[in-house]
Amino acid sequence: MESPFDRNGLFSGLYGFFADLTPESFAWLAYLLAGVVVVFIVINGVMLLTAFETYMERRVLGRFQTRLGPNRVGPFGLLQPFADVFKLLIKEDLRPAMADRLTFFLAPVLMVAAILLVAAVVPFGPNTFLADLNIGVLFIVGIPTIATVAMFLGGWGSGNRFALLGAARAVAMLISYEVPMIVSLAGVLLLAGSMSLVDVVEAQRLPFIVLQPLGFFVFLVAASAEMNRSPFDLMEAESELTAGFHTEFSGIRFGLLQLAEFGELVIISAVLAVIFVSGWQNPFVSPDYAQWLPGQLWFLLKLVFFLLLFTWIRATLPRMRVDQVMAFAWKALFPLAIINTLVTAVLVVAWPEPEYGQLWIMAAINWAVAIACLVLFSRFLERHRERPTASVQLVEIPAEAS
Amino acid sequence: MLDDYYRQYGLVLLLMGAAFAVPLSMILFSRMAQIVRIRPNKPNEVKSDIYECGMETIGGRWVQFNFRYYLFALLFLIFDVTAIFIYPWAITLRSLGGGALLVMLAFLAILGVGWAYAWRKGAFEWR
User: Fold this and answer.
1) Gap between the Cα atoms of A97 and A242, Å rounded
2) 20 to 30 Å CA-CA from A176: which of A8, A182, A296, B63?
3) ipTM computed for the complex
């Protein structure tokens, strides 16, 4: 049986380098040093991408709203995120007198840690990843849930009613969207036959977005709800709850919460790029032929594409109502994910080892099912829509009042 | 080699340590900035009160409110367990073949009855 480190070129290369430097009996030291270097690369990669994402989001959102966005600090405003972090570091850090000290302290730390931890299993390129766990996909859907716990800790611990309500809403919504998100990945697992993300990428002779349009749609929507992105950002609905669970956080703690939010966006984009658009592989050329660009660059391009997509969605769609959001997860997304799983399962049983042509037939069937399901479900839900029960009393305005 | 699998978890553990160290060090750095008086720290009674749009807080800090989503929590428990069944099934279906598909269909049919019941009872509505 081959060792999982055989595929991890980055780590084994570093391990070999440090093993030459250290004496024979200190193999653990070489392991530790190589691990520290890879961890350093991974964490810095995620943090820098997060900084870049905050800058890009503000610039692109500015374009969408016909304004400029930050353009003063450095060339094109490129240093804006660093200026923000520095400003937050030297801001006064208030803790409300009523707050619960431990949970208030723990919430931002736990949130950032959970988000950074997910990066452990994401392959950033061929032979470039920290660990190739054989439960990678489970790791990806499981670990960000810790951030939900942190969110509730923060909302409860700050001793503010708005924060508490915002956190309660957040938890209700996040656990609702957790279920379709998990089930939507089952189709990918059926096709790949493995939970390791490296295997998932290598199984994609066609990108899974072509084979799994419904799964992609459900995962995209559920993931954008999971990270409180725009159509689902009602736990921080400014007009109702001031700022939701992070009302009371200031200074660097607030910065950490923002870091966690945007970091989750980066991580989810990376996961989308890996699972649905074949990660580091060139989507236009079969992996057997010469590639135009290094795999890491392809991965980065796909990641940035998804960041742009999320920004676009944020700029376009208005916020949903809280009752709509709940009903949408359970009535629409969950059955769609189940249908997707079943259709894919039937196709996999029919063609256990599909040829290239059969893959295209699978894709055609899946697209037909996806479009039919989306149309039928939207019609059905439109007809059985729950309308708000509060009624509006019309008041006659006297004519002379105007 | 089984040993190498554990070594991978060692790397994940290393990343976990770093992931906790990053936010903690940022808070620590900010704290140190306070000690050398770069960062201000002058709390007073108004500042350390909680934010309620300018009103003074009336009553205790934690209020009772209608805990509407215990139903969602129950549903989550039920349907999240499905994931634990679906994931191993999804990985091994290729070698298990059609029989496993029928079994999963039966399981999902039972689950579907429960889902339809929950819909009918209005458990999916946020009231």
Assistant:
1) 19
2) B63
3) 0.86
